[in-house]
Amino acid sequence: MSDAHPIRSRRPGLSTGARIIAGVVLLVIGAVGAWLQHDAPGRSAQPRTEFTADNPPTGLPPALTTGQHLDWSGCTSVPTARADYECATMKTPLDYQKPEGRTIEVALIRRRATGPNDRRIGSLVLNFGGPGVSGVQGLPEHLDQYKPLLDRYDLISFDPRGVGATIPVRCGKTADDTGYAGADACAERSGAFLPYIGTSHTARDLDLMRYLLGDERLHYFGVSYGTALGAVYAHLYPSHVGRLVLEAPVDPTEDLSEEQVSQVKAVQAAFDRFAAHCAARIRHCPTGDGPEEAARRMARLADRLEKKPAPAGDGSSLDADDLALSVGDHLVLGTDGWSPLAKALTALIDHNDGGPLSNGAADMGSADRTKTPPDISHVAQTAITCADSSLRPDVERLARDEARVKAASPVFGEAWSTGVYLCYDWPFEGERVTPQVNADGAAPVLVVGGTGDPTTPYPGARHMARALGEGVGVLLTAEEEGHGTYPQNRCVMEAVDTYLRTGRTPAAGTVCRGSMS
């Protein structure tokens, strides 16, 4: 992928003007503990006991399983260099088909559980999406979101392969350049690693992590792309599935091209709902009297910006593609993003000021909606996506796919259409057209989907629950706008927290009312 070929990510909060796979991150996590736990106020402290597991991953040398121990110590990098966080590295095979060969180190971070020692369930491993998001950096940034779980779990996150401190992908003009100079540069700088950074390899890392953390089964919370990782894990290790939450899931039945079409339709539908709300509720609505007028005004605005981009502050500018991507950034925030979006569009239309639109969504991060982390790796997003997908369309197929995406949305189709070129010149083969996620025999997996999600459209949640297998995938539906519904929807939060604490899933067909109800 190059700057000329952006793709919309499976995450919210895409940085304005991103030209590679738009990665936005959603729902990042935090918090836990101390060396001593208290059963109740006034009672004496309990010493912490470390859990041990008796089911190491098969096929690995003892040096990596029974002979390896995680050496937790204080983290040293900002913002993790605080007393409350511990970091460690885990050795894994680079190539699981050659487990005795070269090893790599996976970077981990932990916050210890705060509740009574005898009530601790184990570790909850978190993946915040992307792909391309550092869990080591992300955990401290979103500490408050998962506080209700801190009394029962150590919270664990990590840098997946290709990201952060775990064999980071380099595709720049020099070895230290973190930019993207094309697929050939990726092969030159990171070719030794690129065949081994896909989701199935990271899923195998998860099982070794589970064992070294002392858990017989994996407890896991994955968001957006993190749902693909969790589902692939469930497929590979159904007997090791503990309590898995897959929130804002990707559609395991769609290839990259189909995903682009579905996503651009979903973001257009979200914009239409915003435009209808704006017309009815916002005085001097910048998009006019409804969705049809909004599409016409956006087309005129895009044409103006294509001819002359608007200043956006700090020497940057906002062009037609930036317009679409920045509007999309606001839409992933759900109704929280609607009023700021109207104000930002007014500033752009009336005053040619692109700053509020360009920077607004990133500045709105809160405890309920994830901000784009500063260390998101767009090159890692490309590399991991192309390692997963074996789709390598020819020129004729690319032209058809591009036309389909453009036709699917009058507002966003042009900007999204270049995403079809993401992997066309990637120098390594991908693994599969669509991931294998069937997990027959696994414990129930909770799948949470929002009906107004513009990034991972709701049908994907139904498909994920069904693909996991009968009696495995349990779908919880939230009638909410935006990408992700935990923890801002109270009904979702209560159902998810109950499942993670007790293992009880909500009744089949449960629907949580919300902003779309």
From TrEMBL:
<feature type="domain" description="Peptidase S33 tripeptidyl aminopeptidase-like C-terminal">
    <location>
        <begin position="409"/>
        <end position="512"/>
    </location>
</feature>
<protein>
    <submittedName>
        <fullName>Putative hydrolase</fullName>
    </submittedName>
</protein>
<dbReference type="GO" id="GO:0016787">
    <property type="term" value="F:hydrolase activity"/>
</dbReference>
<dbReference type="Pfam" id="PF00561">
    <property type="entry name" value="Abhydrolase_1"/>
</dbReference>
<keyword id="KW-0812">Transmembrane</keyword>
<keyword id="KW-0378">Hydrolase</keyword>
<keyword id="KW-1133">Transmembrane helix</keyword>
<comment type="similarity">
    <text>Belongs to the peptidase S33 family.</text>
</comment>
<feature type="region of interest" description="Disordered">
    <location>
        <begin position="40"/>
        <end position="62"/>
    </location>
</feature>
<dbReference type="InterPro" id="IPR013595">
    <property type="entry name" value="Pept_S33_TAP-like_C"/>
</dbReference>
<dbReference type="InterPro" id="IPR051601">
    <property type="entry name" value="Serine_prot/Carboxylest_S33"/>
</dbReference>
<feature type="transmembrane region" description="Helical">
    <location>
        <begin position="20"/>
        <end position="38"/>
    </location>
</feature>
<keyword id="KW-0472">Membrane</keyword>
<feature type="domain" description="AB hydrolase-1">
    <location>
        <begin position="124"/>
        <end position="279"/>
    </location>
</feature>
<dbReference type="InterPro" id="IPR029058">
    <property type="entry name" value="AB_hydrolase_fold"/>
</dbReference>
<dbReference type="InterPro" id="IPR000073">
    <property type="entry name" value="AB_hydrolase_1"/>
</dbReference>
<dbReference type="Pfam" id="PF08386">
    <property type="entry name" value="Abhydrolase_4"/>
</dbReference>
<keyword id="KW-0732">Signal</keyword>
